[in-house]
């Protein structure tokens, strides 16, 4: 009996991993190439792939990591870096609220789920339709871990490629903007309510003109 239950648990865990992986394939394709772009920029700025690795593990902030390269090379102060981070990634404070209760129910995984909630992971979790019999909390955690691994892998690859092969990195930072455009287009096509997207465009243009 114990052997049967153990086999069922293993089979269930494998199915959850497979399901989480299929859900994150679009993110993987984006994060690997974006991570490579970030790693190349770090290497071009004079920082080895170890810098790309540790910043992706402990910062994991996507667009902010691209800005980080400029902050490091310009010798910006910690206060300036903190203010820039707040402005660039402050949006996480707002859309993360919709998951706060669900994450609290995940126990020890709660801090990591909050830390790893990027735009792309948020999009996957919002549209997640968990198959019957699968543990939604474990699947959500697996999705977050896989997305994080994709980003770290891409960053290290980019750093190592930049060490052995010299690239002209001019314009490569636009890859993050391109990813956001793709996310917006996908959500526009999947949703019948377009007012939030239109409001975001209008506010973005106003902020660009004002600041």
Give the tags.
211 residues; mainly alpha; 11 helices; 0% strand; globular
Describe, in plain words, how this protein is organized in 3D:
This protein is mainly alpha-helical and about 210 residues long. It has eleven helices and no strands. The chain has helices at about 1-45, 50-60, 65-75, 80-90, 90-95, 100-105, 110-115, 120-125, 135-165, 175-190, 195-210. Helix 3 packs antiparallel against helix 4 (about 80-90). The longest helix is centred in the first third of the chain and has 43 residues, at about 1-45. The radius of gyration is 19 Å and the shape is globular. The mean pLDDT is about 85.
Mean pLDDT: 84
For the termini, the CA-CA separation is 67 Å
Describe the global form: globular
Unreliable stretches (pLDDT < 50, length at least 5) are none
Portion in strands: under 5%
**What summary fits the major beta sheet?**
none
Structural class comes to mainly alpha
Radius of gyration: 19 Å
Number-wise, the strands total 0
Count of alpha/pi helices = 11
- Work out the helicity level: over 70%
The run of helices and strands is HHHHHHHHHHH
Condensed summary:
By secondary structure, the chain is mostly helical. It is built from 11 helices and no strands.
């Amino acid at each position: 009996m114990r052997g049967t239950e153990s086999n069922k648990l293993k089979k269930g865990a494998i199915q959850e991993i497979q399901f989480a992986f299929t859900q994150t394939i679009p993110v993987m394709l984006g994060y690997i190439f974006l991570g490579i772009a970030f790693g190349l920029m770090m290497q071009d700025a004079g920082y080895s792939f170890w810098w790309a690795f540790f910043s992706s593990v402990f910062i994991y902030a996507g667009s902010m990591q691209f800005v980080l390269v400029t902050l490091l090379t310009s010798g910006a102060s910690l206060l300036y870096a903190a203010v820039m981070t707040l402005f660039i990634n402050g949006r996480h404070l707002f859309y993360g609220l919709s998951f706060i209760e669900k994450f609290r129910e995940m126990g020890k995984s709660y801090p990591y789920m909050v830390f790893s909630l990027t735009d792309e992971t948020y999009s996957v979790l919002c549209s997640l339709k968990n198959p019957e019999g699968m543990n939604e909390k474990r699947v959500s955690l697996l999705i977050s871990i896989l997305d994080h691994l994709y980003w770290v892998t891409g960053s290290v690859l980019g750093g190592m490629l930049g060490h052995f092969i010299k690239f002209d990195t001019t314009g490569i930072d636009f890859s993050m903007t391109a990813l956001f455009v793709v996310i917006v287009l996908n959500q526009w096509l999947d949703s019948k309510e377009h007012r939030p997207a239109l409001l975001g465009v209008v506010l973005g243009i106003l902020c660009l003109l004002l600041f």
